[in-house]
Amino acid sequence: MIGLGKSFRIMDDNNSRSLDMYEFTKAMKDYMLGFSDGEIKSLFQFFDVDNSGSIDYDEFLRALIGPMPPARKKIVFQAYAKLDRDANGYVDINDIKGVYNAKSHPDVLQGKKTEDQILMEFLETFETHHSCRGNGAPDHIVTKEEFVEYYNNISASCPNDQYFELMMNNAWKINEGDKTYGKAWAGEDTGKPSFGNKPAQGGRPATGAGRPAARPTTGQTIFGGSEKQTMVNKPNAAPTENMNYSEKQLVENFRKALAKRGGRGIFGLARQFKIADDDNSKALNVEEFVKCVHDFRVGITPADAKRLFKVFDRTNDGAIDYDEFLRGVVGEMNQFRAALCKKAFTIMDKDGSGKLNVEDIRQTYNAKKHPDVIQGKKTEDEILGEFLDTFEQHYSSAHPGERDGVISIDEWNEYYNNVSMSIDRDDYFELMMNNAWNLNNSRVTKKGWGGEF
After folding, report:
1. I need a surface site. Which of 88, 211, 360, 446 has the fewest CB within 10 A?
2. Which residues of the chain does CATH 1.10.238.10 include?
3. What is the pLDDT of residues 310-337, one digit of tens each?
4. Cα-trace Rg, the chain
C-alpha cells in the first residue's frame, strides 16, 4: 500500500490529491507503458469509476488491485448467507434486527435516533460503496452485489489473506464452531455481535507465549483509550471563551464529538471527513475545518479550532488531507501496539546500537532474488536502502531534513503510528507484526523476495 501511495503522489503533479487526464496521460508516457492516446483515455475512464473527471486514491488503488480473489469472495458469500436469514436474496432491516441490537447505541439512549434509524445507517454503510460507482441512491436493502462491492473496497487495503479471514470471522462469526458472540453498544450482553467490540478469545489466532504487554480491556479503541473515559469537555456544550485548553484537550474534545456522530472506526471517520470536505478537494482548509468544528458541536471557540487545525496539519501546508485527519483523530499507538513495535525493533537491531542500518537489515532480509537485482537494474544494497527509506519517509513528512539512511526508534514508531491508524483492532495489528517480524520465532530463516527463504 505504501508503494502505491508513493507512486500516486509522484503522478499527482499539482498536489490536488487526485489525477486529472493530463497527469494520468503524462504518467503513462513517463512509465513508457506503450499505450496509445485512445487506450490511455479508455484506461482513465476505467479508473474514474464515479465519472468525476479525476481519479482519487481510492479509485486508483481499487483499479490496480482489482476484485477479490476467489478465496476471499467465498468468505464474503458465507457472511452474506449468514446475514440473509430468510434466504430471500437480499438483506433488509429485519435481517439486521436478528443480528444486531441497537437499543443501547448512544444516540438511541439520548433520544436522538430510533433503533430503526441506527440499523438503517448500518445498511447504508454497505450501499455507500456501491452507489459511488453510479448505481443510485441507498434504498436500505443490501443486495449481494452491494455487499461484495463493500468488501472489494476493504479487500483492496488488506494485503494479507489471513488478516482478511480473521476480520470476516470476527465480524460475522463464520466459523460454525464459534458460538461466543460479542456485545451490544453499551456493553450489554445480548448474545448478538456489535460494532467495535473486542473479538471472542476463541476467534484469535495463536501468537505464541510471552506477550509484550497486557491486552487492553474491553472498550479499547483505535484512539488508544477507553470509550468510557470522562470527557474533557462535553462536545455539545457552547464554546467557552474562558477555557484554556491544551492541544491534547482540544484533540480529545474533537474525538469525542466525532464518536457521537458515528465516527468510530476507519470507515466512520472517512465518512465524517467527506462531510467536512465541502469543496470535495480531498483536503480540509482552515475555513472548512472551523466550520466542521462548529457543525460537529465540539464546544470550542473558532480561535481554538484554528489552533487545533495547526495540530492536525502535520506538513504545515495549510491543508489537512485524510491521512493527517486520521492520524490527528486516532493519535499515537496504544501501549500494547507500541510494545509490539519496540520488540520488533529490538529484533532487527542486531548490534544493539539503537539504530537500524543496511547491515542490520541484511541479516533479516535477502534481496538477491528481488526482480530489480536479478535484472541488473539495482544492487542488493540499493534495494535494502529503499527498504530503509520506506520507514524514513513517514518521519520526514513531519520532520524535514531528517533522512539519513539510518532508522531510529522514533522513525520506526512513526512509521507504525501511520500503519496503526488504519487498523481498528489490536488483534489484527498483532497478527500483522508477527507475520512481518517473526515475533513468536516461528520462522528460522531470512525472508526473501520471490518466495526464497
Report:
1. 88
2. 2-65, 70-203, 247-330, 335-451
3. 999 988 889 998 878 877 887 778 899 9
4. 23
Is residue 85 predicted with pLDDT exceeding 90?
no
Q: What number does CATH give the domain 335-451?
A: 1.10.238.10
**Region 21-49 average pLDDT:** 90
For domain 70-203, the question of CATH label 1.10.238.10 is answered with yes
Q: What is the pLDDT of residue 13?
A: 86
DSSP states of 198-246: PPPGGGSPP--S--SSPPPPTTB-TTSSBTTSPPSS-TTSPP-TT----
CB atoms within 10 A of CB 415: 19
- Chain centre distance of CA 211: 24
* 227-256 pLDDT tens trace: 333 334 444 445 554 457 888 888 888 878
Among 2.60.200.30, 1.10.10.10, 1.20.140.10, 1.10.238.10, name the CATH number for the domain at 2-65: 1.10.238.10
What gap in Å lies between CA 437 and CA 415, rounded to an integer? 15
Cβ neighbour number for residue 66 with a 10 Å cutoff: 10
